[in-house]
TrEMBL record, chains A, B:
Entry keyword set: ATP-binding, Cytoplasm, Kinase, Nucleotide-binding, Transferase
SUPFAM superfamilies named in the record: P-loop containing nucleoside triphosphate hydrolases
Name of this chain's protein: Guanylate kinase
Major localization listed first in the record, in broad terms: cytoplasm
Gene name in the database record: gmk
GO cellular component terms, A-Z: cytosol
Length: 207, 207
């Protein structure tokens, strides 16, 4: 048996906040943490690997998994479906691996509703003007897309109140430090350390 | 207004676990943290200062404070009373100071029952034999006292299940690291960072 249960770390943010970079750095820095691989119905692209980038499945199987309550969260994006598997996640967590779920606000709501034991972190930009200049300077979106993202940002940011922790992405290093601190602390939760605690208690004489 | 609410960190352990040393090191290492000063009816001893070591009050005032629900926890020890004040704690927390409460298991129960927002950590020794040899080697207790402490240890250690976090005091430095990590993470809770979050949200245009 693993010495502890893994932490399911849910991370959400308004788009343009730099969440993907943060998650990437966190994965690079910490051991025993892995990125949760989603299921999807979309076609595999060149350079992608099944089971590494996504679990590629067909629509029939995806819908059957919806029907059997197998998704912690799923979404329809441009007619393709994406979802986080429940049993695959629970198996990893039971074996003591921490899982990072990089999901949007809708996904965060579903994970909370699923009743699974998750730790949620909301990443905020230091301010709206900073978010705006970041979105404009990364140059990967059209002006229209930037405008759409900015228009949605307030509603997304308001969702912070439903999360456990908030990290402000002002400086990348300190934001990654904060994510690492949250994960390290959550590993010490009594609810995740049954085996460690029991091992120690078993050395005590009965009263 | 302070940028965040302080964390009320409750720390308990079976006696002999080295909790006082841990708390001392944590206070030395971290800023904005202070030790919660208790109220007591016992006489001030040489070298002690009112308001620093304890708030020294008479029995009449202590009992009036019990009556008005002013204690988060209190106890009778050898006919003298000791208690943690509610309003003094809440004031410090509201001003963004973290408070450390080094209390026994009975005190821990009362704090939980008080409904105050506290974070509780239980410190365990690595094993019963280690606890026994530590108690014997520190030489500050009579054989009878050691025997009493050891007889109570199992019942005390079982209380870990009611706490939020568990820290195993195997190596002092790493145990202090873990306490510091817990405190740092809890400072990032959404529930304690209302002002920070509101400041950021206020820079966003309304939807």
């Amino acid at each position: 048996m693993a010495a502890r249960k893994g932490v399911l770390l849910v991370i959400s943010a308004p788009s343009g906040t730099g969440k993907s970079t943060l998650v990437h750095e966190l994965l690079r820095r910490m051991e025993d943490v892995e990125f949760s691989v989603s299921f999807t119905t979309r076609k595999m692209r060149e350079g992608e690997a099944d089971g590494l980038d996504y679990h590629f499945i067909d629509r029939g199987r995806f819908d059957a998994m919806i029907g059997s309550g197998e998704f912690l969260e799923w979404a329809d994006v441009f007619r393709e479906r994406y979802g986080t598997g429940r049993s695959v996640s629970l198996l990893k967590l039971a074996s003591g691996r921490d899982l990072i779920l990089d999901i949007d606000i809708q996904g965060g709501r579903q994970v909370r509703a699923s009743g699974i034991d998750a730790v949620s972190v909301f990443v905020l930009p230091p301010s709206f003007p900073t978010l705006k200049s970041r979105l404009l300077s990364r140059g990967s979106d059209s002006d229209e897309q930037v405008a759409t993202r900015l228009a949605m940002a307030r509603g997304e940011a308001d969702e912070v109140k439903y999360y456990d922790y908030v990290v402000v992405n002002d400086d990348l290093e300190s934001a990654v430090d904060q994510l690492a601190t949250i994960l390290s602390a959550e590993r010490l939760r009594v609810s995740r350390r049954g085996p460690v605690t029991e091992d120690i208690l078993s050395t005590f004489p009965a009263e």
